[in-house]
Amino acid sequence: MPSLSLTSNNSPVDPKKEKKMKKKIVLETQETDPLMVSSKKEKKKEKRKAVEFDDDDEERSETSSELGEPVNLKKKSKKAKVVEEEEDEEEVKAEDPNAVTRFRISEPLREALKKRGIEALFPIQARTFEDILNGCDLVGRARTGQGKTLAFVLPILESLVNGPAKASRKTGYGRPPSVLVLLPTRELATQVFEDFKVYGGAVGLNSCCVYGGASYQPQEFALKRGVDIVVGTPGRIKDHIEKGNIDLSLLKFRVLDESDEMLRMGFVEDVELILGKVEDVRKVQTLLFSATLPDWVKNISSRFLKPTKKTIDLVGNEKMKASTNVRHIVLPCSTAAMPQVIPDVISCYGSGGRTIIFTEKRESANELAGLLPGARALHGEIQQSKREVTLSGFRSGKFLTLVATNVAARGLDINDVQLIIQCEPPNDVEAYIHRSGRTGRAGNSGVAVMLYDPRRSNISKIQRESGVKFEHITAPRAEDIAKAAGVGAAETITQVSDSVIPAFKSAAENLLSTSGLSAVELLAKALAKATGYTEIKSRSLLTSMDNHVTLLLESGKPIYTPSFAFSVMRRILPEDKVESVTGMSLTADGNGAVFDVKKEDVDTFLAAQENAAGVNIEVVKALPSLQERDRPRGRFGGGGGGGGRGRGGFGDRSGGNRFSGGRGGRGGGFSDRRNGSGGFQGRNNGNKW
Ligand SMILES: Nc1ncnc2c1ncn2[C@@H]1O[C@H](COP(=O)(O)OP(=O)(O)OP(=O)(O)O)[C@@H](O)[C@H]1O
Asked: What is the pLDDT of residues 400-419, one digit of tens each?
């Protein structure tokens, strides 16, 4: 039974309810004031008063009791302690300059935020809130995962229900939208729509999401019925405008999220057409957000935003443009080695959470998803309904590895993504920043591993432009993975019931007496077998290929070309052995060449140096710095081979140019319109997501 206290009119009130009422009054007072409502001192005073009032009441009721005064007093001091603790906690929250209570955010929105565990705004939200609510056009930039979505969702909603946009906003059946949000991908549109649904719903505003690949009818229906917020991809929105389903005459806000991607992808015309439908631009507020804002986007943005626009750039000239919550790692790996290396990278760096693997091409995504146990592919060629099922399965944890093209690079916010693997460095730094930013979100940490061809990859360019200082590692060694597996297996063995011992004891004794191995050695073998190991494969440092070893060749004079290295080897080794060499790369100092040979050929190569004076061949213990070349001939395979044989230095003989390609800059595809045949078809060139 809750204890009752007496109010001034002596009617009994549940103290919990009373406290809530008092709290509400305090919040309401705050709402009437603009930003930081009452000063800290005033707040303290108010609270102190409230507590004193509580105490008085309790004292009155306590003293009116005839029994057990000491008990009651004890109770009171405990309660007072709790109140004090609560007060301290609230003070800490209130002291946070970004506490939600310090902004002009109304009660229902605050409650909705609280339900999702949000009590303070992130810096980009805090820095842009007032400007947006006051009606400014704004360009906002913050690193990935820093909460840019709520940075526009919250002030827009607040403006519509309590702010400047309220007066002229239409309500009722068939109302035209007040807000239009454009995003580059369907998945992202759905995600942002979810936020508008939750927070907009809390203040009585409704939203709808329109994108290609989905049926027109339900979208038309929702638009005709009347909606406050429309979220979608440019192609389908343009279609709806042309069909007369979207009337922008009373639009109050237009938002370009991931603006650089939308404009870069050849959407400039669509976006311009859509934005151009607004007759009186003075009445519309335009907001533009992204983690990356190349200069050319800034220039274009001046066409869409008013000259008085504000720019809040939390990255600015800081060297590091990518997420600072992410460990950025690079690992040399050939295409052929990926199916073996990727599972090991996941076991070493995935922390048991979700992993997203990025490939450049759809076929590579399919192929890799087929090779990795429990992985699914996501790209633009997959039917929309299947794309949605795949993404929701990944979000809900039905499977933990998603192999995706750039369709998943932007904006996607998926819980517990611990690891990002990029199968090759992307062509532009923005793609690196966004892909690696799918982990390490909202203050959490994560790991991004990028696989690369040490001779051709533009790692130093990405490093320079993103400000990331890459950590260089080699593929997890089989010994390390086996060791970790052995520890786990040893634990499970102790859990095996003793009841099995009699059945296996005589076989064990027999083995011990005949094998010539010690008990420990035999047990080690048993653990290996239990974890699926029958041998430990050596892995090349250069290409990460199993059962390959990386060797260094020096000839006593500079080695300027791979052909020269091959010609040196031809003098001392049989042709078939020279032919079997893969991954030929020149060292950065110009004095040597590194390459991979099969494990069983190592001795032949090491012995061959005896045949020529001045030639040195040795096993590489740590990969030296290598010369980087541009990638004119596509990645993995094609060119680069020695001796004019045209064989790929990185030896992807099986798949030709599978992981090659890249995006053709502007005009690369994405078209989620008309035929509904997959949203990322290149319009102007072959950018196949
Ligand atoms: N004030 C906040 N407090 C706690 N969590 C928040 C807050 N604001 C946003 N979040 C959470 O942070 C995560 C990242 O937010 P969001 O997706 O908006 O980031 P972003 O900056 O748009 O990232 P990207 O550049 O990758 O698109 C989301 O899960 C979101 O719910």
From this structure: 999 999 888 889 999 999 99
